[in-house]
Design brief:
The chain is an alpha+beta fold. 57% of the residues lie in helices and 15% in strands. It has helices spanning 3-27, 31-52, 55-87, 172-181, 183-218; strands spanning 100-104, 109-111, 119-123, 127-130, 135-137, 142-143, 159-163, 165-171. The protein has a 4-stranded antiparallel sheet with strand order 1-8-3-6. It has a 4-stranded antiparallel sheet with strand order 2-7-4-5, with no helix packed on it. Strand 4 and strand 5 form a beta hairpin. The longest helix has 36 residues, at 183-218.
Length: 223
Amino acid sequence: MDTSHLAEHAGAAGSFFASIFVVATLSMRTMIPLRVFGILTNIILIATAIPTHNYPTLILHSVLLPLNTYRLHQMLQLVRDVKKSVNNDLSMDWLKPFMTERKCAAGEVLFYKDEKAESMFYIVSGRFKLVESGIELPVGAIVGELGMLSPSNVRTQTLECIEAGVILSVSYDQVEQLYVQNPAFGFYFLRLASARLFQNISTLEQRLAQQAAALPALAPKPA
């Protein structure tokens, strides 16, 4: 059997297995298995395109292979970062690659109390204050993430920029897409949001206790 027949048989066998992987890829519901099967499909089609001199297929999948590999790495890194945040400092820095930068001027209101919540924000620079509570948020703070989980999806306070700065924003739709693509991300995100909620409650309780302790000192002394 000459090399041309071997190439034809190799091409036919490769196309058969590649077709199986393509069907399997289309049946995947989450992103990580989808990327894994996509990478396997790319490798098989590259391997079968070489002996058959099918250069268009070779070029196409040579481009798709590193792309699928990068996206797989990105999603796995996202899950690792969220898991690390849950176990450590509750930071949401892992969301930065998916966020959009926005500049804010002093006096600008980012959202009002009772309006519909559609996105969360990460403070990069400047000064921002929750108007109703008077709490000033530090650089690196995340605000608005709990609105995604509340039944009414409305803001509980007004957020105002009191000194020009930069924020990063991400819509709840984008976060939901990440959740659908990777359930592991969704699981750790819910754990992280819950942990931040309990942290906020603890901080509020401490401030109320401090205010209660300060009241006797402020009370007027009897004449």
